[in-house]
Amino acid sequence: QVQLVESGGGLVQAGGSLRLSCAASGQSISIYTMGWFRQAPGKEREFVAAINWNGDTTVYADSVKGRFTISRDNAKNTVYLRMNSLEPDDTAVYSCAAPSTPVAGPGDVSRFQYLESWGQGTLVTVSS
Predict the structure, then answer these.
(1) Cα 56 from chain centroid?
(2) What are phi and psi of 113, to 5 degrees?
(3) Helix, strand, or coil here: 74?
(4) Which DSSP category does 102 fall into?
(5) Taking a C-beta distance cutoff of 8 angstroms, is the pair 119, 22 a contact?
(6) What's the DSSP call for residue 9?
(7) Rounded mean pLDDT of the chain?
(8) Per-residue pLDDT tens digits for 98-109
(9) Of the candidates 22, 1, 123, 8, which has an alpha carbon nearest to the alpha carbon of residue 72?
């Protein structure tokens, strides 16, 4: 099972930007779809973005479409989430996740299917 560690969270003003990183270890993630999720205080975890193994297919939640960009660097075994035009409603713990099978695509990951490995999360706080 792959180990995932997120970084890059912090406190930012509304309208600002952050880039989150998800570094994988223990095995290569180069053939796997990867996803970002978030959980705000008192709310259920929700899907944010997913990217297929080579980066040519991405899926986003409607709430972040046009503001967030998911990308990956397979040589570094790392997935990124660039977040622009941040809003207070984006405040949450952001986690990355990997599925148990390379068959899982971005659509599957967006529906929480096949997910096996999760990072501990990184907190993003957006002040108004």
Answers:
(1) 16
(2) -90, 145
(3) helix
(4) T
(5) yes
(6) -
(7) 97
(8) 999 999 999 999
(9) 22
